[in-house]
Amino acid sequence: MPEAVLHVGSGKVRELYALDAERLLLVASDRISTFDVVLPTDIPDKGRVLTGLSAFWFARTGSVVPNHLLALRDDGRSTECKRLTMLPIECVVRGYLSGSAWKDYVTTGAVCGHRLPPNLVESERLAEPIFTPATKATAGHDENIDRAAAVELVGESRFDEVERVALELYELAAEHAQARGIILADTKLEFGVDGDGRLVLADEAFTPDSSRFWPAQDYEPGRPQPSFDKQYARDYCESIGWDKTPPGPELPEEIVAGTRARYVEAFERLTEIAFDDYLADPEVVLR
Ligand code: PZK
Questions:
Q1: 273: alpha, beta or left, given left = phi > 0 and alpha = psi -120 to 50?
Q2: For residue range 192-221, what is the model confidence (pLDDT) as tens digits?
Q3: Which residue's CA is minimally distant from atom 16 of ligand 1?
């Protein structure tokens, strides 16, 4: 008999199931979203790349903060996770000025209450990484919030802890990535609290779906940067004049193959493990 599993949640490209009172199963699909729309064409192994990368980072950040990973399944796309009480904020760290932070900076000169120097340009590296929390929107986009608003949601001591831990995690991962030719421009981390009140890193960590990965060799401040993984798919979607409203277009096989190759390249560069070795035995990323 198969194990009984209750579906407890859906992300755009992931599913979450309850295994028992203490454990969840997080399953990463091969779906891809671009311009906030999930496309009808899968990218083979994308879910395995993201699952393997997350597990790689969990195994390497345990000395900074404990995480929810209990087991990596043989399919390479499913992880058994410790059930937590999730904090009601997205914990974003930014080392570069991009996306909503660039928009907020242009409009107000500040991001989440961090006043920044004048005359910064789009995608510019910040003098120091900043913690820029956001609310978790159930519909539409997350909203950037300042320290006071985040403290209202999680309390002052938990805020101070999560800010310190998130910045430390970002510095560790960004330095590792930079040394391998990938700029980790920003990242979104999610934390929960266990039954003993301890802060625990959850969800996915430092994947191309939760972070902006930029190829370091193409970095040029003053413009938006190409995405390490999604640029072929985005360029294709724009080239055919898609208006970016659902449904998204099907991707031709050469765009699928090129996009898959970029995901695999990101995995191999960051982990220094052959992706075929991961497929043969996912636990290689934990060693
Ligand atoms: C949890 N999400 C978001 C992620 C989805 C939804 N360890 C945990 N304990 C309790 N809750 C969560 C987690 C984690 N991770 C995460 N919602 C609840 C989410 C992926 C797929 F459908």
A1: beta
A2: 999 999 999 999 999 999 999 999 999 999
A3: 203
